[in-house]
Design a protein that fits this description.
The chain is built from four helices and 19 strands. The protein is of the alpha/beta class. It has a single domain, classed as Hexapeptide repeat proteins (UDP N-Acetylglucosamine Acyltransferase, domain 1, 3 Solenoid). The strands form four sheets. A seven-stranded mixed sheet has the order 2-5-8-13-16-18-19. Strands 1-4-7-12-15 form a five-stranded parallel sheet, with no helix packed on it. A five-stranded parallel sheet has the order 3-6-9-14-17. Strand 18 and strand 19 form a beta hairpin. The longest helix is centred in the first third of the chain and has 17 residues.
Length: about 180
């Protein structure tokens, strides 16, 4: 297995691998360029963000600054909006449905590190996929952790840390996030 295949399968992998390093450098150059495009040039921004991300629907708007690990592992649906300061660590697949909104400073982190210190010292990492359903709203400063799946119509309260999966039609909040209301 290549390091990229290991990464996408949730196994320990080396991020210093030549292929992964080249992919990371490529997307860094793209998002650095993206982050410098003036807001008045919305069409130019949209064209470049669609080049950065692995898949998009129509009407994709991502405010700057925006950061990611590879970009190619991120798929967003139609009518996607990410406000200022969005970070998506996409060492594994990150799939976001249609009509989703991310408030400022949302972090979606498919990346993680081994719990055992001796594995961390060896420089290996791992990641787990994240899926966010349709019609979700993620509040400001919220963090979505590796391996989480959120159903459709989920609202995540500002500042929440989502460490586990949740079903459709709920409002979740807190650290760790829990259901505070059904919709």
């Amino acid at each position: 297995m290549t390091e990229r295949e290991k990464m996408l399968s949730g196994e320990l992998y080396s991020p210093q691998d030549a292929e992964l390093s080249a992919m990371h450098l490529k997307v860094q150059k793209l998002y650095e360029r993206y982050n410098k495009i003036p807001a008045a040039k919305a069409k130019k921004r949209e064209k470049l963000i669609k080049k950065i991300l692995g898949g998009t629907g129509e009407n994709v708007r991502v405010e700057t600054p925006f950061f990611c690990d590879y970009g190619v592992n991120i798929e967003v649906g139609e009518n996607f909006f990410a406000n200022y300061g969005c970070i998506i660590l996409d060492v594994n697949k990150v799939k976001i449905g249609k009509n989703c909104m991310l408030a400022p400073n949302v972090g979606i982190y498919s990346a993680t590190h081994p719990v055992r210190a001796e594995e961390r010292y060896n420089g290996v990492e791992l990641g787990y996929p994240i899926t966010i359903g349709d019609n979700c709203w993620i509040g400001g400063g919220a963090v979505i952790c590796p391996g989480v799946t959120l159903g459709n119509n989920v609202v995540v309260g500002a500042g929440s840390v989502v460490t586990k999966s949740f079903p459709d039609n709920v409002v979740i909040a807190g650290n760790p996030a829990k259901i505070i209301r059904e919709l």
